[in-house]
Amino acid sequence: MDAQKLTLLINYHLREGFVCKLQDICAQALSARTNDHVALFWRAVGLLLESRPAEALRELQPLLQSPQVGLAAKAALIYASGVAEDHDKDVAVMNMATELDEQSIAAPPSALLQLATFLWHTGSQERARACAERVLKHAPSDVAGSTLLGWILTQPHYEADTHAVEPEDLEQAISFFEQALSLQPRHTEALLGMSHCLQLRGKPGAALEQIHAVIAQQPWFLPALAEKAKVLVAMHEWEQASEVVSQLLQQEPDNMQALHLSGPTERVPGVGNEHIVLHTAGVHWLAREGSNAAAAGELKALLQALERQEPRNPALWLRFAQPYARLAGQDSAILGLSSALVLKACKAAPSSPKFAVEAGYQALLQGDVQGALAQYSRASHLHELDMEAMYGSIECDLLNGKVKDAASQLEFLKEVGSAGVGSLQAPDLLYLQGLLAWKQGSDLSQAASMLDQALQTRIEGLLDAAPSPLFFTQLNPSRILGVVRLFLGALGGAPKTADEPVSPLLSRCERLLEVLLKHCPGMAEAHLLLAESHHLAGASPVALRKVADVLRRAPDLLPAHLLLTRIYLHQGKVAAAQEALEQAVGMSFAIRESAAYATIRAQLLVAEGKNDEAERLLQAAMGMPGVKRQQTSQPRPTTAGRRVADPSLSERLAVFLLLAQTLSKAAKIPEATKVIEDAGREFLGGPEQALVAIAKAELSLARGEADAALSILKGIDRRSPHFLRALSLAAHIQLNHKRDPEAYALCYSQLAEQHRDYECYRLLGSALLRIQEPEKAIKASCSAHAGQALEAALEQQPKDGDLAAQIGNALVSIHQYRRALDYYHKAVRNCPASLPLQLHLANLLLRLKSWDSAEKVVRSILTGPEEGTGSIERQAAHAKALVMLAKVHKGRGSLAEYEEGLQQAMALQGQVVEAVRGDHPDLVAAHKQAAAEMQAELAGLYASQHKLDLAAEAYEGAVKADAGHHAAALALAKLHLDRGEEEAGRGVCTRLLAAQPDNVQAQLLMVQLLTTQEQYTDALSQLQQLVQQQPSDYAALEQLLTLLRRVGRSQEGQGFLQTAQEHASRASGVAGLHFCQGLYERHCSNDRAALKAFNLARKDSRWEAQSIFQMVGMYLYPEIEVLWAQAEQGNGPDQQPLQANMEAVAAAQKLLSDAHVTDQYALQHQVLSCYAQMASGREEDVEAALKQLLQLAGQQRDSVPVLLALASGFMLKKQIPKARNQLKHIQKIRYVADEADQYERAWLLLADIYIQSGKFDLAQDLCRKSIKHNASSGKAWERLGSILEREQAYKDAAEHYENAWKHDQQSPAIGYKLAFNYMKAARYVDAINICHKVLKAHPDYPKMKRDILEKARSSLRP
Hints:
Elements: H1 3-16, H2 19-32, H3 37-49, H4 53-60, H5 70-84, H6 90-105, H7 109-121, H8 125-138, H9 143-154, H10 167-183, H11 188-200, H12 204-217, H13 223-234, H14 238-251, H15 256-260, E1 266-267, E2 276-277, H16 282-289, H17 292-309, H18 314-327, H19 332-348, H20 353-365, H21 369-382, H22 387-399, H23 403-418, H24 426-440, H25 444-460, H26 469-475, H27 477-490, H28 504-519, H29 524-536, H30 540-553, H31 558-571, H32 574-587, H33 595-607, H34 611-622, E3 638-639, E4 642-643, H35 649-665, H36 669-682, H37 688-702, H38 706-714, H39 723-736, H40 741-755, H41 758-770, H42 780-796, H43 801-813, H44 817-830, H45 835-847, H46 851-862, H47 872-891, H48 895-916, H49 921-944, H50 948-961, H51 966-978, H52 982-995, H53 1000-1012, H54 1016-1029, H55 1034-1046, H56 1053-1063, H57 1071-1083, H58 1087-1097, H59 1101-1128, H60 1139-1154, H61 1162-1174, H62 1179-1195, H63 1200-1212, H64 1216-1228, H65 1236-1252, H66 1256-1269, H67 1274-1286, H68 1290-1303, H69 1308-1320, H70 1324-1337, H71 1344-1356
Antiparallel strand pairs: 1-2, 3-4
Helix pairs in contact: 1-2, 2-3, 3-4, 4-5, 5-6, 5-7, 7-8, 7-9, 8-9, 9-10, 9-11, 10-11, 11-12, 12-13, 13-14, 16-17, 17-19, 18-19, 18-20, 18-26, 19-20, 20-21, 20-22, 21-22, 22-23, 22-24, 23-24, 24-25, 25-27, 25-28, 27-28, 27-29, 28-29, 29-30, 30-31, 31-32, 31-33, 32-33, 33-34, 33-35, ...
């Protein structure tokens, strides 16, 4: 090994702190040259740095006379005397120091370089710099001198706790390295130094080029690979860094840098013992991947490697342990390992306070406050003015509740700082001051500001730093997480309501966590706390996605399952919450002994209606150690050797408040009051006191004492983090209990006047809009106040397109469309670059069907200024604009251009999704959702055109783009079912229900599948269960009533309707309930009641089309049948119908003209319009309707409603063969449950044709087919009876007429036929009874009395 290689390796390993490795290198050099003074000297330095001064002194003494290292040896002896703390030799050391100064003046450059190098590596930066400058003064072209000076200027010694470099020093260092490389371009040390400087400049790419040059020139120098891995990590090129680490470990398995950047999995064959190739753990991988288990395994391997290679290097142990502890969160495995390493360092260097300080901090991270205090006290004993030890002791006092002691110590520190003694660090001091203010509880807002500022100051100091172990140590994620937990804990645990502003504490939490996750994207706890922050902010769907992401990373993370349970409970998903809680218990049975479990389990029990059981559970929780203050000193029990964590303040409070709520619900008001009073004493003086007051107000409200509740709420301090919640509750009381809308609005007005921020103005505007009743005329003054509030909010955030849109929507909500358009135009002129505003304007124009104006706005978006073109936001806006342009074409009837526009939008949105891949998950999800919406829109077009293959492909694309696009999945499943692809439809529904078990639409599709397969019993059972669970789900109730009719049990629907009415908050105003009532009445042939209910239901847009179509069918279908009868009797369709018929037709036409029809119901509307036209009976109207129907049939050849309408028209034209052909075509079309009534009417019409032609067998088959699908089909039973009556089988005919009469007792014609066949079958009494029923409802019904009643009576006489 030549001298240059030796120097290179010595400097590198000393920079990294590998002193044992340094000794090995020197020993290797001495094996070739036994008297190499440089190797001997640096081996002695290694002993010295290992705190082995006696051995080092023995090796240094012979080197004092060496011309090359004599000066450095003398400096090492002086340093050794300090390490050995030999005060008896102070005079000799002083003399030696004087000699060193005198001899260095005339020393040769080689000796000065060795001296400067030693001084640099032992922390004497200024003296090292002076020596190096002296070398360059005498030899300006000395490459080694220039290189060394560059390193001295840019990197402190390995034990330093900061890498901060002054800008001027960095520039000088670069010039020195450039000078060295100009003289010797292949100088390895200079190349490494230049790389280091470029990294400090924030140019990792250029730094990597320098490393590549080193690797190319010096392939033997394996540390260059470690440096390359560091640079790649700084560039966030994690995969490449992992490959380099693996390459390095294959060549040098125990390389410390590689082990520090990686984690254990494989052995390398043929290379040493227990050699580890690590894929993705280590400090950086812990921060990136968040795999704590893998990191713990890697740390164990790293400790083993340290034991082998650096068994006496406490400084290195400390440096390696620190980042792991700060990245571990609350992971006990990693903290235990890192703490053991630090305690080992304390034992190896018992006189060094810094190891004791670190041991104290790691004990604090593990929740051992007393242990931490002992270590900090030991550090202070070793060094009375050690500021970090003082900080730690103060934090321990605060955590122990010794607030006064901590305050006096902080005051002392301020005095020490003002006297210039010690080294006060502003962020740490500010953190302690903030923590003290928080514990004092006088002004939590100010305390939170101080804590936030302390963390922000530290973060800002690291903005330009690249990721490295030291970076994570200085960032200290554990402290950030601790502050976030403190803030979130103060908020209680209940999410904010819609009328409540977002707490400033939540804003602080989200900001801190987003910064932390930018640097540590793999920290599961940070993601989990961010999810909890979203949950408390009322964004439960976002929180749910976050928790799901955390569980994908760490499926065994217990707090994640608990948070998931809380979110599901808040969303009312009791079954999902129960499952999540069971998973948590399955991972740790000890959790059942915690207060957190008790509160969550109690909420589940309350949701299931088991209030008594919940009360018992909470009463037991009150006795748990730690829940009540007087019990906090008791030791916690253990389960299976595991310590049960003490409950947090928020968990303790939750037990009290939930117990009070449970007692209140059970009408145990005195007991609930006592619990609240106990809570008030327990949490007196803290931020939780306000939550207790709010609970007390809610209890007063439960007693009906609204004024008392308001009085309690007014007593909550405005500085409390819960003041906004109190104000929101007060507003709720004013509006809903006091019925005082002005006082309700005044609450938010006062809030806006006090804070004058965006959120408060927005809430004020929303409140002012909310108090307007839609039935009343909206006063301009009230809407003006709302507009002023929203505009004031807009002034706070003038570029908030969403808020500007809300102002426009506010105007639209009061039907002032012209004002809304004027506002949007003005807003767009004031902010022409705001694409969201232009999109909102275009959307409003589309709603108003102003196609030309909408197209103009959309094209201005697409052809706008080029600034920012190519940005993700602009591309996404252009994609939305293309969709709107496509809708303009659709509105004009140009479906080809509509399709082309959607395809263009999809292509552009696809580029957006690719561009954001790997970005923030919420952003990616939003753009994927937009892409899915476009696919679904296109699929809807294809479905309407009966291009079913293309529709299925587009729906599948939508689901692939966004797995959460349940509407597309539902449409795809329905499409499969309609096409007879039952297994494919079942598969889509199954996957959808697995992701969203409570999806009612998916459950209804599964019912449809069972119905299609004629499994009516199973389908009915599932529907009944669904309706019982959700009585107010009117879509499910509608299907249940329909299915009950099909199985012949319509009367059972009355009970379900009554239950639904009981659960409806305002039954008279629930359109879905009215629709279901109308459906039931129609099934029971109560036409008048059905029409009344449908008329009420059609006032709601959700049920309008279906209600109108039901009413139109009731008006038209009987008239069409009358015309058929007239045609069969030889009266042509040009015969003038009765006046009553014309009134029914006119009513149907009026309903159809008033209907607001969407694409979903467009075809049905067209077909019914044709029926209405034919029902007039005029020849020209029938011809016109048939012409339109033939056009529709050409477009949709297998549409059952169109073909049936065509057949009806041909019947009216007496073109029976043509009608029969259309009906036979329908017979060949696969049965679809959604069009069951159309199929039934077609089969019965064809049966009538067969009956007229004497083909009774074919007619009977069709009737039985109708009954198979609808057992309540009175007309099918009637036709079967008529066939048997013609065959004079009166007894059998009577049985069929009985079934017809059972399902339609309002029809006198069926009653007549039934009575007649009873009489013919000699069932005279039955015939007489039926006659009485018919005559009671229809006294003048012809022939009934004379032909049947009198004859039956006479037949009974003897």
